[in-house]
Amino acid sequence: MGTPEKPIGVAGIGIDITKASQEFSALDMYGGGSWLIDTKGIIKISKNPLEIGKFFDVCLKRKEKQNLVLHDKKPNAMLYIQENEKLSFIAYTTLKDVDWKVLYKVDYDSITNSLVLIKYTTLFSGVLFVVLVICAFHFLSKSFTNPIKELTTVAKQIANGNFQMRYHTSLRNEIGSLSKSFNFMAESLVGFNNDLRESNRNLEEKVKDRTKDLIQQIKVIEELNYFQNGDYYLISLLVEPFAKNDADSTKIKIESFLKQKK
């Protein structure tokens, strides 16, 4: 403390090794390991007390990775293939002032398992959502199509002549309004049908009356024709003696004929 020319004492910064050890030995949710390594690669703090004081090749076997961790000043993270070809993830950083390294290693599968779980959970949620949407769409479509199908069936029955058919629904939407209009139309068709039947009945009676009159007139005409034919026969008998050609001449030709006009 003080100035370089007049120092008045020495001050240092202490590190609570116990607390630091507790931090390094704390349980990791991924089951990874943490080490504090000095500049020579000697392990100072570890979860495993047997590793303390040893070279950190007990946790990192490959030489090229060891050199990278010891000489790289910047924080870094990488994938690491172990001797058993098991994939691990390592990360390290350098402490200020002391130039020591904090190394962390965890199995790659331990990290990705949660991601795989998230992936399958998301996939399952997506499939479930799609199924729910399809079910909801199916239900909604049925709620619209079934009344329309029933209304179509009633319309076909009315078209076939069953004017007593009606469609009733508890829906209060457009289908309900359509059913009311349809029932009103059916009532109108019943009235029109009754009027048409009455008109047909009156027309049949008029046709019968007219036919009866025509039959009577035809009978009168037939009777007149009968009498007229009888008169023609009698007249032809009376005229026949006068229609004879008794002239005997080669110069004059006489023909006679009798024509009936009705």
List descriptors:
262 residues; 5-stranded antiparallel sheet
Question: What does this entry look like structurally?
Answer:
With 262 residues, the chain is an alpha+beta fold. Among the domains are: 17-112, Beta-Lactamase (2-Layer Sandwich); 177-262. Helix content is 52%, strand content 11%. It contains four helices and five strands. The protein has helices at 17-25, 63-71, 108-159, 174-239; strands spanning 33-37, 43-46, 76-81, 87-94, 101-107. The protein has a five-stranded antiparallel β-sheet with strand order 2-1-5-4-3. The longest helix is centred in the last third of the chain and has 66 residues, at 174-239. The protein starts with 16 loop residues before the first helix and ends in a 23-residue tail after the last helix.
State the share of residues found in helices, binned by percent.
Answer: 40-55%
CATH superfamily name of the domain at 17-112? PAS domain
**Which structural category fits the helices and strands?**
alpha+beta
In total, how many beta strands? 5
Beta-strand proportion: 5-15%
What is the level-2 CATH architecture name of the domain at 17-112? 2-Layer Sandwich
The averaged pLDDT comes out at 75
